[in-house]
Amino acid sequence: MSENQEKVIQIAGSITVDELAKALGISVTTLIGQLFKEGIVATINQRLDFDTASIIIDELELKGVRLEKKNTATKTSEVRRELSDKAVSRPPVVAVMGHVDHGKTTLLDTLLNKKTVEGEAGGITQHISAYQLKHNDRMITFLDTPGHEAFAAIRQHGAMLTDIVVIVVAADDGVKPQTVEAIKFAQGANAKIIVAINKIDREGADIPRTMADLAQNGLQPEEWGGDITMVPVSAKRGDNLDKLLDMILLTADIEELKADVEIPAEGLVIESHMEVGKGSVVNLLVTEGELKTGEFIVAGATYGKVRTMLDFRGKPKGKATPSTPVTVTGFKELPNFGDKFVEVKDEKTARKMALLNAQSAADATASANVTSTDLLRMMNTVDNTKIFNVIIKGDVLGSVTSVVDSLKLIDTKGEITLNIVATGVGDITENDVYMAAGDENTVIYGFNVTVPTNISKMAARDGVAIRTYRIIYELLDDAKRSMEDLLDAEIVETDQGEMKIKGVFRVEKSSIIAGGEMLTGKIEAGMLGRVIRKKEYIGEVEVVSVQKEKMDAKELVAGEIGGIALKTEHKVAMEVDDRLKLFTREMKKKTL
Ligand code: GDP
Q1: Which of 92, 158, 211, 518 would give a disulfide with 252, using CB separation of 3.0 to 4.6 Å?
Q2: What pLDDT sits at residue 64?
């Protein structure tokens, strides 16, 4: 590597201390030493996230090294292994998302009824969280979106369930807050987006305006030179739904979705519950291999033998291929939503693996990986800055921007770091509360928006603060006060005066009786004083009472002579000619 050549280190999610040291070409000890300086006690196998690694590299001042996030959020997600040349194509996994009442349910219902009638007879007997339908003799798997919260959980497991997100937008209503959220989600999950512009049979339907709305939100229609397919449909009447399905399959073809089948089955848990008489009933989505009844599977800390396996209609299924949703019984305990499942050869292996999974889950909680937030927090305890996390929701983009800009202008004198966790247009949602939960210093501010009752209940349950305002200055005042609350109180001392000691009448272990002359300021009961002898500090005292002409007095002021009774914690050997420097000491809340 020449001097001015950059060394690029790619990090997918996280990197161990050992790997990072090797990549940087420094010793593990040096790296651990640097981490220690930042307040992190790390072991060689500890994982560091991207941001932490960046901060450490900055601190090390290594020239010519650049970190790069390796994009794992592609269709071959972490759960999906490298494909062999025997991989076969698989159906796309599609999620339907969009604003409430824009027609998601109607779309799925119409599609399923239509296709079920066209295909096999029977209809849907059982509601499960995923469906399959046949179009042009090819299968498409639809996931009934379990809410963004659940999706976030799945993402945490490193799995990308959906290949394609169909965003439903009502042509008579346009882009709404949850539409924006759906777009963000799909982009975050790196799924392909197809828009269904719905309710075109409605009188107020305005397709061009809806497209313009979408374009403003980052989705450029193909018709206008962009890359997003938009299909005008009527979910209710069934108009253009075949076209929508064509587009889904076309997208799947472009993506070349494939999976291996000649390997042990694996996939994800998409729903699980207990049923009387059946025990655990678990919905799985097979992503690799073929799952058959009688096989042993492990998911998280639980395992089982597939006793029964049904397709989404509730019909027995002997074998499930990739992208197929099935309902199985046989798990000993309920696995968690989002858990990966794998097929293993026998019960003994299954039991052992489940046990190992349980242990590593326990280890993970015990020595959690270091994230940048942890690092910031640790650094904060060192330099005393605190973090104030906010989530900002506003009625329109303009108000969100001005709230954010104004918040950034609050001068925190370097003592508070304002961290804007998320911003968005629209009412406060479940997802906002979900994001805020878990960090006590997070406040959700709503500007000109409302808080649905279920959301405020959820927030109350999770201890999340939601504050709504209609006047920006009030919001800013609150933010400032909240930041001030994070500041530690400080000790403030104020000079009050000085007395020259002219006589010491009694010195005991914890008290002194003396007399003197006030040179400056005043002395009164309750004040504290430092006894100073020729610049040398002798001890601290507290004034108990003051006497003037042998009578109790409130105070002595400059020029006056009088007697004083003092209290001490340790013996202070006061002498004539000592100076008593008086002061008051208060705990004061810092202000910004
Ligand atoms: P979701 O909340 O997104 O699942 O929306 P729904 O599927 O429940 O639909 C909300 C309302 O819009 C229902 O009354 C539907 O009948 C109606 N709706 C859905 N799609 C269409 C459509 O294409 N045309 C018309 N006219 N109404 C529709």
Answers
A1: 92
A2: 73
